[in-house]
Amino acid sequence: xxxxxxxxxxxxxxxxxxxxxxxxxxxxxxxxxxxxxxxxxxxxxxxxxxxxxxxxxxxxxxxxxxxxxxxxxxxxxxxxxxxxxxxxxxxxxxxxxxxxxxxxxxxxxxxxxxxxxxxxxxxxxxxxxxxxxxxxxxxxxxxxxxxxxxxxxxxxxxxxxxxxxxxxxxxxxxxxxxxxxxxxxxxxxxxxxxxxxxxxxxxxxxxxxxxxxxxxxxxxxxxxxxxxxxxxxxxxxxxxxxxxxxxxxxxxxxxxxxxxxxxxxxxxxxxxxxxxxxxxxxxxxxxxx
Length: 289
Description:
The protein folds into two domains: 16-226, Alpha-Beta Complex (2-enoyl-CoA Hydratase, Chain A, domain 1); 229-278. Helices cover 42% and strands 12% of the residues. The relative contact order is 0.11. Helix 2 (78-92) links the parallel strand 3 (62-67) and strand 4. The longest helix is centred in the last third of the chain and has 18 residues, at 248-265. It has helices at 41-56, 78-92, 135-142, 169-177, 179-187, 194-199, 213-225, 229-244, 248-265, 267-278; strands spanning 16-19, 25-30, 62-67, 124-128, 131-133, 145-148, 153-155, 192-193, 205-206. It is built from ten helices and nine strands. Helix 8 (229-244) runs antiparallel to helix 9. A six-stranded mixed β-sheet has the order 1-2-3-4-6-9, with helices on both faces. By secondary structure, the protein is of the alpha/beta class. InterPro entries: ClpP/crotonase-like_dom_sf (IPR029045), Enoyl-CoA_hyd/isom_CS (IPR018376), Enoyl-CoA_hydra/iso (IPR001753). Keywords: Virulence. This is Enoyl-CoA hydratase-like protein. Belongs to the enoyl-CoA hydratase/isomerase family. One of its GO terms (biological process) is fatty acid beta-oxidation.
């Protein structure tokens, strides 16, 4: 499918391939297969800019992210991270060394790949085609839905190399699987198979085969893209607020305060109601939320 007409052009993404396989759907492929799609700091900033653009682009409603080759994402580039730590320690010891620039030494506000700590407006579906380790697993935990290859593996091996999962994965993992299971994964280095991840509610489904992961994720994306773009934005916000807030009622109040009036001022409300009454397919307008 040809690229749709955008209100603004996407940012430069030398490490991510962008395609548009279905109407209103963005497919992002992490394109560093020789390094098992591990990410440098600069790549996370690249992803952060990309998904900010995606949120602002009216023609797009849902994104799918996958990895080139056999791996989904093996996490952070450990060689770069190790060099940064060495320079920081040398600087602290009084040595005359140049520290790396911010874009090569810290994560953006959206976290790993611009996803693991992303608030955002629109949903992202992870199509996990292989290993999802460290930051790659945190990326999944920050996604809205996950479809995984039967051969995929999930884990947080950071403690083995003397660091910790620093881009939101620990908190999100506890929320999803509970303290004791999260502790075993994060502190004892337990890896999860796709079947185990499914049993813990970490993924939506296991694909029929490694080759069908992206297609199955795109089928899920098509269902999301067929709904009102306003409704998807507001519903996602409601789900995310409930996840972030300790109080269910406070989460509901936050959602109402932010979106209720805007939602019912949107023409898509009447478009949906009238189409339902006439038993016709609604022709949604781009969201202005």
